[in-house]
Amino acid sequence: MAEIFSLPPAVPSGDPSGVPSNNSSADASHMARIAASVAARTGFDPASKLRLVVAGQQVGWLPRSHAAILRGMGCILGPEEGVADGTAAVELLPGRSGFDVLSAALAALAHQLADAGHVRGWRHELFAVTAALDAPALAAVERAAARFLGLLTFASHMNGIVDTADAGGGPVLWISRRSPAKSVDPGMWDNLVAGGMPHGSDPLATLVRECEEESGIPPALAGRVQPHGMIEVLRDLPEGVQWEQVYVYDLMLPPGFVPRNQDGEVSEHRRVGLAALLDIMSSGAMTVDATLVTLDALRRRGWPGSEDRRA
Predict the structure, then answer these.
(1) Which domain-ending residue is among 150, 167, 186?
(2) Is 309 contained in some domain?
(3) Within this chain, do residues 27 and 54 fall inside the same structural domain, yes or no?
(4) What is the span of the domain harbouring residue 87?
(5) DSSP string spanning 255-295?
(6) pLDDT of the residue at 42
(7) Structural domain includes residue 308
(8) Is the dihedral angle over the CA atoms 237, 239, 243, 245 positive or is it negative?
(9) Of 150, 184, 217, which residue is a domain's last?
(10) DSSP bridge partners of 92
(11) Can you tell me the distance from the alpha carbon of 246 to that of 292, in angstroms, rounded to the nearest whole number?
(12) Does some domain include residue 246?
């Protein structure tokens, strides 16, 4: 199974699936199916990867098959070097240094990869090449090339929770369905708001922007979000590796609020109760990232044990 980590107050240690425990047999059945769905989609084989290094810092997990493609394009990679844990590391763009120089070289490389059909879904958006959220960016690269290179990326996800306390109802969340035109996870269910963090931004600024674009949530309302830690995902994908730190937020929404997409990246919003939400996740119809973020909210709020089964 992939290495899926959480920082408090996200997924508890010792439970890499991110599935909260509960005492209801019906919920237990759902949770078992959700765990199986997540496990089936989160395999990671470090032996088939190289630690991708820039300026002495690991910035990615490069599939060996992709390393072979890069070596065929010229002096893109340095020689492999062994690491104490038995893995191997390789330098990206050896002999080049400085943000502007590295970024220009990566821009040319991304176009080469796209022209050769190795990357898809060109975004015209730059992601940072960095070893950590709080570390300086060593370069910037077209977002479409990030997973081919297995780069560490960052995203912000938000649970849109309807405030039904006064009505006395069970938990209700708004979720969104990704446009079928999306290059990644087309047509799958997602959190109400979810988006990758571009170079120069931060998790909260990214979230506030995505709130307005994806769901028509104005900045004044989006500014009330509550941060709830980070979930780190590392898994193999057909296009490469997803190594992503997902920053988790909750937002309590007024009962009468109805989201409206503004950027064409969402095909549908749906207001769902606990039963319908568990059904969607257990069927594998929700993205891995969104499933983990949703489960985190359920665990924190003690909802899987709720006896209110209304959809």
Answers:
(1) 150
(2) no
(3) no
(4) 46-150
(5) TT-----SSS-EEEEEEEEHHHHHHHHHTT-B-HHHHHHHH
(6) 95
(7) no
(8) negative
(9) 150
(10) 77
(11) 10
(12) yes
Token pair, residue 174, equals 């708004």
C-beta separation of 119 from 113 below 8 A: yes
**How open is the CA angle 53-64-291, to the nearest 5 degrees?**
85
**pTM: predicted TM-score of the whole model, two decimal places:** 0.89
Would you say how long the chain is, in residues? 311
Regions of the chain with pLDDT less than 50? 1-23, 305-311
Q: Is the peptide bond before 203 cis (omega within 30 degrees of 0)?
A: no
Contacts of 170 (CB under 8 A, 6+ apart): 164, 273, 274, 306, 308, 309, 310
- Signed CA dihedral, 3, 287, 282, 296: sign only: positive
Number of Cβ within a 10 Å radius of residue 239 = 19
pLDDT tens-digit series, residues 50-100 = 999 999 999 999 999 999 999 999 889 999 999 999 999 999 999 999 999
CB 68 within 8 A of CB 78: no
Tell me how far the alpha carbon of residue 190 is from its chain's centroid.
Answer: 10
User: Is residue 123 within 8 Å of 113, Cβ to Cβ?
Assistant: no
- Write down the pLDDT at residue 29: 85
Residues β-bridged to residue 158: 193, 249
